[in-house]
């Protein structure tokens, strides 16, 4: 329970935590940011780590000169592409063998996994791009792609496009708008709004899937 509270606190007050990380670790901050994005996108049992909010907050600090924007974009892009690639390989190797009672199955939210599979089956390759902007779902989609034996070259193309769009949009939003007084003074609220906006596509998809059985009667 304390771990969950710590993660929620880190996400909602990520600006405060980034101040401490930059102060205590200096240039090693880039390595820490790389690790968070890499694990969030690359390890299917860690979908709860910050993604959009982290990019936005880091972009804000780059506007202040605390972090280098070009280095930040390269770090985030590399971490996102490599993370999805690792997740794809994990899915390719163990995806079809995971059951709810297995070791991996205990850590994977089966409901989220089934939603990701349905989303993937409906939208195909472009799912990899769309899912970049959907918390939780983006962690499961590369895993599902690997488990479904999607050709890696095809997957990589969408992986690169999705990573570029995600990193550029979220980081540059923070860079250009994060230090506007009204945003800076209500940073936690802004992060909550960003997270809510990110889950809207998944919410609409869920609502549509719930309506389909009724219309078929």
Short description:
The chain is mostly helical.
Give an account of the 3D structure.
With 217 residues, the chain is an all-alpha fold. Helices cover 76% and strands 0% of the residues. The protein is built from 11 helices and no strands. The longest helix has 29 residues.
Notable traits:
217 residues; mainly alpha; 76% helix
The number of helices is 11
Largest sheet: none
User: Which structural class fits the helix and strand makeup?
Assistant: mainly alpha
Tell me the helix content: over 70%
Describe how the helices and strands are arranged.
Blueprint: H1 2-12, H2 14-25, H3 29-42, H4 52-63, H5 69-94, H6 110-123, H7 127-130, H8 137-147, H9 152-177, H10 181-185, H11 187-215
């Amino acid at each position: 329970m304390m771990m969950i509270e710590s993660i929620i606190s880190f996400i909602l007050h990520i600006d405060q935590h980034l101040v401490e990380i930059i102060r205590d670790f200096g240039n090693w901050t880039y390595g820490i940011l790389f690790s968070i994005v890499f694990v969030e996108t690359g390890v299917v049992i860690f979908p709860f780590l910050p993604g959009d909010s982290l990019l936005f907050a880091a972009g804000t600090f780059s506007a202040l000169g605390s972090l280098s924007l070009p280095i930040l974009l390269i770090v985030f892009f590399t971490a996102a592409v490599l993370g999805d690639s690792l997740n794809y390989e994990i899915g390719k190797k163990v995806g079809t063998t995971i059951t709810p009672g297995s070791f991996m199955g205990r850590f994977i939210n089966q409901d989220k996994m089934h939603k990701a599979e349905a989303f993937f089956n409906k939208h195909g390759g472009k799912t990899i791009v769309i899912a970049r902007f959907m918390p939780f779902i983006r962690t499961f989609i590369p895993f599902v792609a690997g488990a479904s034996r999607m050709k890696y070259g095809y997957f990589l193309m969408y992986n690169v496009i999705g990573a570029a769009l995600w990193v550029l949009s979220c980081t540059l939003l923070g860079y250009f708008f994060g230090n506007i007084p009204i945003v800076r003074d209500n940073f936690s609220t802004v992060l909550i709004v960003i997270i809510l906006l990110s889950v809207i596509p998944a919410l609409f998809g869920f609502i549509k899937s719930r309506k389909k059985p009724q219309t078929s009667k």
